Amino acid sequence: MSDAAFALDPRLKNDTRHVASLDLCDVLLMNDARFPWLVLVPRQSGMVELCDLSAAHQTLLWQEVTRASQALRSLDAFDKLNLGALGNIVRQLHVHVVGRREGDAAWPGPVWGSGAATPYDEETITSRLQMLRTALK
Amino acid sequence: MSDAAFALDPRLKNDTRHVASLDLCDVLLMNDARFPWLVLVPRQSGMVELCDLSAAHQTLLWQEVTRASQALRSLDAFDKLNLGALGNIVRQLHVHVVGRREGDAAWPGPVWGSGAATPYDEETITSRLQMLRTALK
Q1: What is the Cα–Cα distance from B108 to B106, expressed in whole angstroms?
Q2: Which helix (H) or strand (E) holds A66?
Q3: Is the Cβ pair B84, A84 closer than 8 Å?
């Protein structure tokens, strides 16, 4: 379910690593070891707001968000899930799925705009990507 | 579609005014004149995460979020819609629908945790509530 004209926004590409391609969305891991943080991007060009997606794609998007949330939770214990679709900086439609722990680097505020990312080391991110791919199957 | 045991969280009640009751959610207007800002709360007790809702209720929730977004957009021009389900402070499941304008009080950051609310005056909020109720019909 891909749109031939779709291309991932360069900023999202730069900040993340590709985990998996689900039916509608690419699942990306934010390269920020401070938070367990996935980003889902529907592979449809020109989408900005959720309502730009067809009703069927909106339903599928939220199903894939639930699936990604469960995968994230299978890796890490966290106290609260944060979901967000903002797009104030990157307009390409994307949904954040973030596991939050009481006392984490931004608690109880939102993660967006809260300081600089702490990149994973290569070994850790490779292992996380692998575990996420298994969990998403 | 209400749960007899459901009661709105006192903090949400204090920060908002009731707009309308849709099939699943109560639609509330955040009493903060800085942003066009609705909050949707499914009238189901004990819900914290989106996945606590049944699949059917999740679908209905996002339909009602779309409907609320359209009502908000019919009142105000804005550049980007922000959707968020955080719950780090108030655990009762609720979804924020916020119209963002370039250069607004929190732009391009998120509205959550960005300074103190500026309450509407009574005349303005009464008129906005009325317009929102009409737009939601």
Answers
A1: 6
A2: helix A55-75
A3: yes
Whether residues A70 and B80 touch (CB distance < 8 A) is answered with no
Within 8 A by CB and 6+ apart from A130, the residues are: none
Q: What is the pLDDT of residues A77-89, one digit of tens each?
A: 999 999 999 999 9
Cis omega before residue B42 (within 30°)? Answer: no
The pLDDT of residue B2 is above 80: no
Asked whether the bond before B108 is cis by omega within 30 degrees of 0, the reply is yes
Do B77 and B89 form a contact (C-beta atoms < 8 A)?
A: no
Report the alpha-carbon distance of residue B104 to residue B80 in Å, rounded: 11
Q: Is pLDDT above 90 for A4?
A: no
Task: Kindly calculate the radius of gyration of chain B based on its CA atoms and give it in whole angstroms.
Answer: 14
Q: Which residue is closest to A85 within chain B, CA to CA? A: B83
What are the extents of the domains in chain A?
Answer: 10-136
Please name the residue of chain B whose CA is at the shortest distance from the CA of residue A91. B80
CA dihedral A61, A63, A68, A73 (to 10 degrees): 140
The phi-psi region of residue A80 (left if phi > 0; otherwise alpha if psi is between -120 and 50; otherwise beta) is: beta
Q: Is A114 on the interface with B (CB under 8 A)?
A: no
Do the Cβ atoms of A58 and A44 come closer than 8 Å? no
Residues A94-98, mean pLDDT to the nearest whole number: 98
Token pair of B88 as six digits = 């780090």
Structure tokens at B28: 């509330």
Residue of B nearest to A100 (CA): B88
CATH tag for A10-136 (out of 3.30.428.10, 3.40.50.300, 3.40.50.2020, 1.10.630.10): 3.30.428.10
What is the rounded distance in angstroms from the CA atom of residue A90 to the CA atom of residue A128?
Answer: 25
